[in-house]
Amino acid sequence: MNIAILILAAGGSSRMKATKQLLPIDNNTMLGLTIERALNSKANKVFCVLGANSEEVSKSIAGYNVKVILNSEFEKGLSSSIIKGIESIKPYSFNAVLITLADQPNVDTEYINTLIDTSIKHSQHIIASNYSGAYGVPAIFPSKFFDQLMQLKGDKGAKVFLNSNLETVIAVEAKDQLIDIDTREDYLNYLKNT
Predict the structure, then answer these.
(1) Comparing C-alpha atoms, which of 53, 52, 38 is closest to residue 5?
(2) Helix, strand, or coil here: 179?
(3) pTM of the complete model
(4) What three-state secondary structure class fits 180?
(5) 22 and 60 in contact (C-beta within 8 Å)?
């Protein structure tokens, strides 16, 4: 099975008041850590959507074997990054795409591989992370859903799409993987607990 990983890292980090993608974690940056874990997974290729501060962020990840996609419309929300990403990966004929965020530092390679293994067993289903009963990303979408993903709007990203297609979703229990780092307080709490 040919799977791409699409890391969404285009946001302007307005609540953080700093370039979130470049925050230091474990001798790396938040985005660098996300990319490393993706590259170490069973996926075939890693793509990263950048937008805000793209020049600076792009330089910070230049050493990684990842294809950068620029989203000049990142201010329109997460959906714009998903659309840009799907447009860019379509020509590669992937069977599925794993969409993940750059600000979930607890999503490790093992968890990514669990999602991929589940997708291999259930290749026609969406594989989503279970946030105590609601579904979200990281999630894997088979290619038959690509056109629908390209119709998304606003800042909810794939969440609304996932939760309105429940009959096609297989959920993977995520435990503590799904902490989002949105504020300075989130970041400091994360550092304190790792």
Answers:
(1) 38
(2) coil
(3) 0.94
(4) coil
(5) yes
Residue 173 CB-half CA count within 13 A: 1
- How many domains does the structure of the chain reveal? 1
Domain that holds residue 125: 3-192
| Domain of residue 97, CATH code | 3.90.550.10
List all residues 6 or more positions away from 38 whose beta carbon is below 8 Å from its beta carbon: 5, 7, 46, 66, 100, 109, 112
Do 120 and 103 contact (CB within 8 A), yes or no? no
Q: To 10 degrees, what angle do helices 109-121 and 30-39 make?
A: 40
Q: For residue range 114-143, list pLDDT tens digits in order.
A: 999 999 999 999 999 987 778 889 999 999
Structure tokens at 119: 């997708």
Per the structure block, which two tokens stand in for 149? 């993903």
Quick: pLDDT tens for 23-80: 999 899 999 999 999 999 999 999 999 999 999 999 999 999 999 999 999 999 889 9
Query: How many contiguous H segments (helices) and E segments (strands) does the chain have?
Result: 7, 9
Burial 67-91, CB ≥16 within 10 A → b, else e: ebbebeebeebbbbbbbbbbebbee
